[in-house]
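tool=predict chain=A
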Amino acid sequence: MSMFFANDNNFVKACGGGTVGYCVAVAVDKEGGLVGIRDTKDDSKETLIFDKGEWQHFITAVKSGEYDIE
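tool=predict ok
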């Protein structure tokens, strides 16, 4: 794993929908072109790392409603 993602100070906590406990921490390594995601409740889990293309595809799909649950 990149040393960038080993530094907790690079992560920002994001919680959606006002639901308590459902948060992730996100870090963007602009120099390396990578995005790291981790579970804020479980430090033992690995950080998931995505390249710029993978992350952009995910964000586009979320914005278009592809993952909406109805």
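The chain has a mean pLDDT of 88. The chain is about 25% helix and 30% strand.
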